[in-house]
Amino acid sequence: MKGFSSGTIHGKLGIRAGNTGYFSLQDVRVPKENLVGEEGEGFKIAMFALEQGRYTVAAGATGVIRASRDASVSYALQRETFGTKIANHQLVKQKIAEMEADYQIAHLLWLRAGYLKNTGQANARATSLAKWQATVRSEKAASMAIEVHGANGYSNDYPVERYLRNCKAAIIYEGTRDIHTLMQADWALGLKSEKSARKRLPPWSPADARGAAAD
Questions:
Q1: Which CATH code for domain 43-193?
Q2: What is the pLDDT of residue 38?
Q3: Assuming Cys at both sites, which of 33, 57, 105, 106 could form a disulfide with 62, CB separation 3.0 to 4.6 Å?
Q4: Where does CATH 1.20.140.10 sit in the chain?
């Protein structure tokens, strides 16, 4: 299409297994038959799509917390210092306990947002909260996992350094931690209200997923 260009972004800190790209529109004219939604709804559609992205980002960040916890538990039960496993050290236990709490918090927030989505209820506030909390807690969990691993955590011989690199992007895209902080404050103060979309995605069903896989 005339005026459209795209490319791939290289040299990223993390998420290197995923292809990241960009596109540019310069004086692009779109035929009327290619109109998505109704005229004037472009921004609303973009924001609705952003909500879906925030939900998946929350899921990924929740997974990073769990992976950080699991790696730390495994390492703490194997690594010995001064004649005892580091799992017996209180400050190691503290880090693992915090990772466990952060995982459960992020997981429950994500499940609640998913329930609201699947039942057709307004979910922008819940999805924003899930994305915000899961991503900031994933950075905390990955950082603590590196500390549990000590010098080994700074090496790519162990996966925890990758968790820290990967989680940083999630704090930035689909709305930074700062914008979600302000959004949550505005909702709590009554300065912002949720608006229902004119059309919503159909409910997801495990049976549908199984049927698609069988096909």
A1: 1.20.140.10
A2: 85
A3: 106
A4: 43-193
